[in-house]
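Long-time lurker. I teach an intro course on protein structure, and each term I like to show students one example going from raw sequence to a predicted 3D structure in C-alpha cell notation. This year I'd like something fresh instead of my usual example. Would anyone be willing to generate the C-alpha cells for the chain below so I can use it in lecture? Attribution to the forum is fine with me.
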Amino acid sequence: MYSKERANSVVKNDVKYISTGIIENVSLKNARSEVSPNGNRFLEITFEKDGATLVHTEWEPVMGQFVTSQEELQKKADNQYSRMLQILVCFYKDEEINFESESFKEFANYIATMLNNANKDIKLRVKVVYNDKGYTTLPNYAKYTFIEPMVLPEGKTSAIVKLNIDKFEKPVVADKETKNDNPFASSTTTSTTSIYQGSESMTTPPTQGETTSSDNLPF
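-- Reply from a regular --
Happy to contribute to a lecture. Here you go:
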C-alpha cells in the first residue's frame, strides 16, 4: 500500500508569490476579464518575477450594503479607472489611452486587451501589500503611486514610497470565537478557526472567499 518510489513520483505543484514591499524588475504577465461562479464580473492582472507571481483583482462596482448612492458608485468607478491608468501609462503614451464607457464589462475587456498587447519587456517597480484578508495585492488606493517603469524619464525620481496605510506585515485573521454559555451543558465549548499566518502569500482569487463586502471591492 505504501511505496517510497510511488511517493517520490508525485509531481509537485508549488506556487511562489511575490513578497510585499517595493519590488523592482517585475514583469507584466497577462490580464483577463471574467465572470465568477457567483456571477460577479472581475478583471484579473498577473505580474511575475523570478518565477513568483502577484495576482491583482478588480471587481465590478455595484450598488449594495457599502455603496448606497450613484455618487458613491461613480467615485468607485473613477478610482478604479485611475488605478488602471497607473498601470497602462507604464506601457502606453497618454494619448494612446482613450476609453469611455458605462459598462464594466467593456472597461475590463479594454484594460485586459491593452495589457495583453503591451510590451512585456518593460520592467516595473511595484508596491505590493497585504489586504485585510492576508493576501498580497496592489494597493487599493488611487491617489498615491504604486507602480511605475524601472526606467524613468531623465531627471525624474521614483514616486513610490512606503506609507503608514500600507500593510507590509501579514495580518492575523481569525474567526470570531463562540462559546456555549448554557449552564446545563456538561462543559463550555470554545471554537476558533482559520488563522492566517506564515510567509506564504496570494491574492484573493475570484472563486475563493468571494463575498459582497467592501474588502473585495478595493476602491
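Some talking points for your students: The beta strands are 16-17, 21-35, 41-49, 52-59, 124-130, 136-137, 147-149, 178-179, 190-191. The helical segments are 4-8, 70-88, 104-116.
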